[in-house]
Amino acid sequence: MRRILATMPSRAYDVLVGRGCLAGLGSALTRRCPGGKTVVCCDENVAPLYLEQARASLNAGGYEVSHIVIPAGESQKNLARAEELYGVLYDRGIRRGDTMVALGGGVIGDLAGFVAATFQRGVRLVQVPTTLLAQVDAAVGGKVAVDFRAGKNYVGTFYQPWLVYADLATLETLPARELHSGAAEVAKYALLGGGELLDRVGRLAGGPLSAARVSQELVAGCVAQKVAVVAADEREETGARAVLNLGHTVGHAIEGATSFSRYTHGEAVGLGLRASLWLSRRLCGLSAREEARAQALLDGLGLPQRLEAVPGEAVCDLTRLDKKSGRHGVGYVLLDALGSPRLDVRVRPELEREVIEWLVKR
Amino acid sequence: MRRILATMPSRAYDVLVGRGCLAGLGSALTRRCPGGKTVVCCDENVAPLYLEQARASLNAGGYEVSHIVIPAGESQKNLARAEELYGVLYDRGIRRGDTMVALGGGVIGDLAGFVAATFQRGVRLVQVPTTLLAQVDAAVGGKVAVDFRAGKNYVGTFYQPWLVYADLATLETLPARELHSGAAEVAKYALLGGGELLDRVGRLAGGPLSAARVSQELVAGCVAQKVAVVAADEREETGARAVLNLGHTVGHAIEGATSFSRYTHGEAVGLGLRASLWLSRRLCGLSAREEARAQALLDGLGLPQRLEAVPGEAVCDLTRLDKKSGRHGVGYVLLDALGSPRLDVRVRPELEREVIEWLVKR
After folding, report:
1. d(Cα A314, Cα A262) in Å, to the nearest integer?
2. Is A257 within 8 Å of A272 (Cβ atoms)?
3. Do A235 and B122 touch (CB under 8 A)?
């Protein structure tokens, strides 16, 4: 098991990464947040697979355990579902010292996390990510939110968990498409970090992607990089945290333009990373060789080759809705070189249209 | 004009207290948050009185100004109204660098504050309190929330404003009942702080309450005390902030038991303060003389003498829903002496019933 200590301005907590460790959740939690009620929130896909194991472990840890199961999918990440969860917590008499356990992928982590952050101005929150995307990215760093209209994560807050507990064995049951989707965030950290992590992800991309080939070191490497970035700018005030937005400006716009249905978040981010690399070569001097290496890495991880079935114009329009966009347009995160991000690069609307067109036609 | 610097862990900001200073809002804001859009949120009572003055001042400060007017009353502090406000911000293309101006009392500050805190994970927030209650208490300290079912402030977060700008002249148009209601929070700070502030509030209670008799020194004194408490425990983690709960455990329960309609928040807190004094004499050794002095202070400020038209049993039940209650019952803030609070005093249910009965029969 790997342990990364996440020391954030607002709270310090452990990120534990293991394989086959779900049965240890209860005892890991008792050492940090003893006593009280726990409410496990998961979706209908995860419930039959891991809910009982999580419940049993929490029970053995001495917790009074209840659960909430909601339908699966990004469309659940809305205010109406949040309000329903508030009602459940209210009816069960949950108080601040009690714990919400978000067992699942990014949707559950964001939704249950937002509810935990705002119910009674914050109950305890434990993230138990069961997807690759959530394990390397979404469960760490404290961003919680629901979507609002076409605005992804438009209603949310910053709220660090008390513990992140990732069991790589849960990736075994992840649909192949979701595993590939999570690989997009892995690729993002590789492109941002370069060095050893890039080499490691390169090796992963060299063969068929499978849960067994995702190592604790790889997940821990991504987490450590995210933690370092977030610790320096927890609430996106200095701008430093924005490097994590690599690939996400276009990625979020693609999700919005397709009503969060055609592509998974990771697939959309994968396409966004491709766009960022293309732009980086034109605007930041990323070499053709490095761009080719990075595009090949995305190929090897099984990410989409091109943007399909989306009007390019709609994507361009939606980049302007990006939460990080300023009054003078969208500031992109691009790369001077692999492992060397540059913040807040202005991209002219013509070039934005051109890269989306390239993404459609390549 | 008085200036109190509120240095909180998450943000430092000024609290400015003046009389007839509303026209200076725009220039005070440009010095702190230059540029961007401002959205002034107020209710139907405040709009005809102060909206145009606030708008003109912000316009003169170079801001693009729009506004939202909602119906008045605590019943507006709900998730449906928050969702409506999200929609307005969304339609107007509000971004993180733009500013929500909460112009009004505690309801507007809490509701618009919660929306500002959560829209895009936080836009800028400026509190312009126009009631005595909001000026001495609600607008300072970063608590924002909406009510949920019978749970007051059950959905919310901690979000410090960028500026608090209080114009005592706005108290001239406050209904007498609201002025008296605000005096309950003034009394709370006097009872907690003792000393000079208690003497000052004692003098205020010695004559008929009027806006003209509320001084900048008095408001600034309450604010300074609140700031000191909140700075030491911004998110209610160490327990120190709980002293501000003096009178509020019973006060909130009274509000809940009467569906937030029979009493104003301040009136309910006034009754809660009376209960706290009664309990303090029995449990903490507050002297009979001091209790009498304090009850007389509440009389002088025109606060309700007794609890009317509420089943006492319902109030007792609702104290158990208090967000600050633990697994072993409600922890009250009581007073060893005037100016000397004691935290987390356990009150047996029988005594709780007895004090509510006293409050009904006195």
Report:
1. 14
2. no
3. yes
Q: Domain with B323 in it: what CATH number?
A: 1.20.1090.10
| Chain Cα centroid distance, residue B293 | 24
Is there a single domain that holds both residue A168 and residue A227?
no
Of B83, B151, B236, the CB nearest to A79: B83
CATH code assigned at A101: 3.40.50.1970
On whether both B27 and B160 belong to a single domain, the answer is yes
Q: Inter-chain contact A86–B154, Cβ cutoff 8 Å?
A: yes
Is A90 within 8 Å of B86 (Cβ atoms)?
no
Q: Provide the residue-wise pLDDT of chain B in tens; the chain has 362 residues.
A: 999 999 999 999 999 999 999 999 999 999 999 999 999 999 999 999 999 999 999 999 999 999 999 999 989 999 999 999 999 999 999 999 999 999 999 999 999 999 999 999 999 999 999 999 999 999 999 999 999 998 889 999 999 999 999 999 999 999 999 999 999 999 999 999 999 999 999 999 999 999 999 999 999 999 999 999 999 999 999 999 999 999 999 998 998 888 778 898 899 999 999 999 999 999 999 999 999 999 999 999 999 999 997 877 888 888 876 666 655 567 899 999 999 999 999 998 889 999 999 999 98
Q: Report DSSP state, residue A131.
A: S
Do B305 and B186 lie in one domain? The reply is: yes
When divided into structural domains, chain B yields a total of: 2
Of A79, A153, A157, the CB nearest to B157: A157
The string of DSSP codes covering B51-87 is IHHHHHHHHHTT-EEEEEEE--SGGG-SHHHHHHHHH
Any chain A CB within 8 A of the CB of B248? no
Residues B166 and B220 in one domain: no
pTM of the predicted protein model? 0.93
Q: Domain residues for A118?
A: 2-173
Q: Same structural domain for residues A128 and A232? A: no
Eight-state DSSP code of residue B151: E
B12 and B134 share one domain = yes
